Amino acid sequence: MPTERKNILTIDCEDFLLLPAFKNLKSDIDLNQMIDNQINAILIELRNANDTKATFFIVGEIAKRNPDLVRRIRNNGHHLGSHSFKHSKAYKLTRSEFQSDLENSIKHITTASGEDVDCYRAPMWSYKPNMYWYWDVLSKKNIKYDSSIFPINRWMYGNPKAPRFTHVNQNIIELPPSTIKIFGFNLPFCGGIYFRFMPYRIIRYFIKRLKKKYNHPILMYFHPWELDPNLVRVQNIRTLYKFVLYHNTKNSMKKFRRLINEFEFTSINDYFINSSI
């Protein structure tokens, strides 16, 4: 079994201004410079936290236009995964479209890094149970790890009936984001708006409670833009989007720093080296 004391840290490497909330937005902001600055800040924090390792799920379009960034992440000892090529919702694609998107992302990440890609995360947790072909496509592309199923119920994503902990699904290891069950409901706290919204002391309590009760890693996820205290402000978007995208981004890097210094994290592949579940 993997060491019980370590948890899993993941970063979704995607462009902030290409998220659905900013559809049709015209901007002269340099996307490469923005993601470079955000990733560099994260790499520095990870090095300072006892050289903590993480899995970076990278959007293929970023790998294509900015291969130096991918190499920099890999040269810092981190694990690389695919976060699709175009950051399209997986459930909106046909099998052939999904396969083509996955192949394209793997090609550019591999070309940039010189290493095979063995893990995948669907954009916006966009796996649905009726995608019967999904696991077959991943398997044929040598994906060993998937982290696309969020065991919660949200209008855009999630499957509250899915297993809450790491398990094997058709020979692929599935790693759900961590949740805590309260009054029969799975409550998320492990990243995104949930991490930014909750006080750190509550997050710490949830992690310690789960670690004490279950022999499973805590899986956390973050987006580079969430950890950017100087995140560019776009005014003409819906109020809900403003809250979800901007809430507490000024302080989220401080919380992230506390998290990775208080708890031990590693990447997906490092966690499972020479082990099984």
Structure report:
The chain has 277 residues and is of the alpha/beta class. The protein has one domain: TIM Barrel (Alpha-Beta Barrel), CATH 3.20.20. The chain is built from ten helices and eleven strands. The protein has helices spanning 31-48, 60-65, 67-75, 95-113, 134-140, 192-197, 200-213, 239-246, 249-262, 268-272, and strands at 7-13, 55-58, 79-82, 119-120, 145-146, 167-169, 172-174, 179-182, 185-188, 219-222, 265-266. Strands 1, 2, 3, 10 and 11 form a five-stranded parallel beta sheet that branches. A four-stranded mixed beta sheet has the order 4-5-7-6, covered by helices on one side. Helix 3 (67-75) packs across helix 4 (95-113). The longest helix is centred in the middle third of the chain and has 19 residues, at 95-113.
Describe what is shown at a glance.
This protein has ten helices and eleven strands. By secondary structure, the chain is of the alpha/beta class. Strands 1, 2, 3, 10 and 11 form a five-stranded parallel sheet that branches. Strands 4-5-7-6 form a four-stranded mixed sheet, with helices on one face. Strands 8-9 form a two-stranded antiparallel ribbon.
Annotation keywords:
TIM Barrel, 10 helices, alpha/beta, 38% helix, five-stranded parallel sheet
Q: What is the helical fraction, as a range of percent?
A: 25-40%
Number of helices: 10
Order of helices and strands: EHEHHEHEHEEEEEHHEHHEH
CATH architecture: Alpha-Beta Barrel
Number of DSSP-assigned strands: 11
Average pLDDT taken over every residue:
93
Q: Globular, elongated, flat, extended or rod-shaped: what is the shape?
A: globular
CATH homologous superfamily (4th level) name = Glycoside hydrolase/deacetylase
Residues in β-strands, percent: 5-15%
The chain-level structural class is: alpha/beta
The major sheet is characterized as: 5 strands, parallel
Low-confidence stretches: none
* Computed CA radius of gyration, to the nearest angstrom: 18 Å
CATH class: Alpha Beta
CATH topology: TIM Barrel
Distance between the termini: 7 Å
How many domains, in number, for the residues?
1
